[in-house]
Amino acid sequence: MGLTGTFEQFTDELAGKLKIARQTGMSQKEIVDRAADIGDWLAREVVPKSPEQRLLKELWEVSDQKEQQAIASAVVKMVQKRSPAVH
Fold first, then answer.
1. Higher pLDDT residue, 33 or 11?
2. What is the pLDDT of residue 76?
3. Is residue 77 included in any domain, yes or no?
4. Residue 3 domain-assigned (yes or no)
5. Residue 19: exposed, middle, or buried by beta-carbon count in 10 A (0-12, 13-18, 19+)?
6. Residue 39 main-chain phi, psi, to 5 deg
7. Which of 55, 71, 73, 75 has the fewest other C-beta atoms within 10 Å?
8. Mean pLDDT within 18-38
9. Whose CA is closest to 72, among 34, 43, 44?
10. CA–CA distance, 17 with 36 (Å, rounded to integer)
11. What is the pLDDT of residue 1?
């Protein structure tokens, strides 16, 4: 997943990954669970490159596990809405 560039590039790349996940038969819950796993990794290992990434990291770090699942779900839904081909 692209960790540099603009937020639009990040979400475009995520849309491509979501499309592949859908094509391989992953459910919405499985996708959100993987997004939460990636969110954990990003928060621990990656220095944010944009204001949006910085905001997501800060939100992630102050959230409990249930709230992190909600953030992951919201990001997945946002990408799906911006890229209708992902559904």
1. 33
2. 95
3. yes
4. no
5. middle
6. -60, -40
7. 55
8. 94
9. 34
10. 14
11. 45
Residue 55: pLDDT above 70?
Answer: yes
User: Euclidean distance between the first and final Cα of the chain, in Å?
Assistant: 19
Q: Tens of pLDDT along 56-80?
A: 999 999 999 999 999 999 999 999 9
Confirm whether 18 is domain-assigned.
no
Report H helices in 1-87. Answer: 7-23, 28-45, 51-62, 65-82
Q: What CA–CA distance (Å, rounded) separates 85 from 18?
A: 10
CA 58 from chain centre, in angstroms, equals 14
Domain encompassing residue 70: 28-86
What are the φ/ψ torsions at residue 25 (nearest 5 degrees)? 95, 10
Quote the tokens at residue 56: 């997501």
Number of structural domains (the chain) is: 1
This prediction's pTM: 0.84
Residue 81 lies in a domain: yes
